[in-house]
Design goal:
By secondary structure, this protein is mainly alpha-helical. The protein has one domain. The chain contains four helices and no strands.
């Protein structure tokens, strides 16, 4: 999940305020109050994908 979450910052730039605010609101502020998958879906607006993990590990997709 972490690689896929970080891919939003790769797409929009690591200093993108909207991405940062979404991460803060949907992940950090929620803590352990909800299931991690639910928090991720709220943050990314979709199911997780393995593509970012493969890319970060140098595996071509």
């Amino acid at each position: 999940l972490s690689a896929d979450a970080f891919s939003l910052f790769e797409e929009n730039g690591i200093f993108d305020r909207a991405s940062g605010a979404s991460f803060l609101n949907n992940i950090l502020e929620q803590g352990g109050s909800q299931d991690a998958m639910t928090l991720f879906k709220n943050f990314r607006g979709r199911e997780p994908s393995i593509d970012a993990l493969l890319r970060h590990n140098g595996i071509a997709i």
